[in-house]
Design a protein that fits this description.
heterodimer; A: mainly alpha; Cyclin A, domain 1; 5 helices; B: mainly beta; SH3 type barrels; five-stranded antiparallel sheet; 8% helix; 34% strand; globular
Chain lengths: 103, 101
C-alpha cells in the first residue's frame, strides 16, 4: 500500500494555490445539481463519492478536473447500485454527441 | 473548548495524550497519511457518528465511532518546521487512536 492519490497533505512540490475566482460552466452547475438531487433522495452519500474518486486509477484521477471527478464518481455509484448500466450511459452519451457535437 | 455535537462519550477526554495508529490498509480512510504515527492531545470530543469507512461502501456505518478534534504541535508533525507554538488540529475517529505511551 501507499498513500492514496487524494491524500497529498504535506507533500512538497504542490505549488501555489490558485485563489482566483473562476466562472463555472453550465455542466459543472448541472453536476452539482445532480449530485445534490441524488443525495436528497438518499441514493448516494458523500463518503461513497469520495471512495469512488479514491479508487480511480491515478492517471485518470490526475487527468480529470474537479467536476469531472464528480461526474465519474456519480457514474460509478449509479452503476454499482444497478440504477443505470454502463451501456445506457454510453448510449445516451452517443445521442447527445450526435445532437450537440463532441464535447 | 466547544460543546460536543452529541452526548455519547468516548474512550478519551479533552487533554488526554493520544498516538495516531500507523495503519496502512485499503479502503476509504479519513485519517490523513501525514498524521499517522504522530502524538497529540484531545482538544474536543465531537460525539459519536456513523463510520465513514463503512458508509463509503454503501453499508450502514454502524457501530458509531466517537470523533475527536486532536491537537498536534506543528514541530512534532513536520521535520523541518521553523515556527514555534503553532498547533495543527485534525478530526480523527477513535479507532485510529491509542493512548500515548
Amino acid at each position: 500500500m501507499a498513500r492514496g492519490h487524494h491524500d497529498v497533505g504535506g507533500l512538497s512540490g504542490a505549488g501555489q494555490i490558485d485563489q482566483s475566482e473562476h466562472q463555472l460552466s453550465d455542466w459543472e452547475i448541472l453536476a452539482d445539481a445532480v449530485n445534490q438531487a441524488l443525495g436528497a433522495r438518499g441514493i448516494k452519500r458523500t463518503d461513497e463519492m469520495r471512495r469512488a474518486r479514491e479508487e480511480m486509477d491515478s492517471k485518470t484521477y490526475h487527468d480529470m478536473t474537479y467536476y469531472e471527478r464528480w461526474i465519474a464518481s456519480i457514474e460509478t455509484i449509479l452503476i454499482e447500485k444497478n440504477i443505470l448500466t454502463k451501456d445506457e450511459i454510453d448510449r445516451r452519451l452517443a445521442e447527445f454527441e450526435k445532437e450537440w457535437g463532441e464535447p | 473548548m466547544g460543546r460536543a455535537v452529541n452526548s455519547e462519550a468516548g474512550r478519551f477526554k479533552p487533554g488526554d495524550r493520544v498516538t495516531v495508529r500507523r495503519e496502512d490498509r485499503a479502503g476509504h480512510i479519513r485519517t490523513p497519511w501525514y498524521i499517522r504515527g504522530k502524538t497529540g492531545r484531545i482538544e474536543r470530543v465531537y460525539g459519536a457518528f456513523l463510520n465513514p469507512e463503512s458508509l463509503a461502501y454503501g453499508r450502514d456505518g454502524l457501530p458509531k465511532r466517537t470523533l475527536y478534534l486532536v491537537a498536534f504541535s506543528q514541530g512534532d508533525v513536520w521535520e523541518r518546521y521553523l515556527g514555534s507554538e503553532d498547533k495543527l488540529l485534525v478530526d480523527i475517529y477513535e479507532h485510529w487512536l491509542d493512548p500515548a505511551t
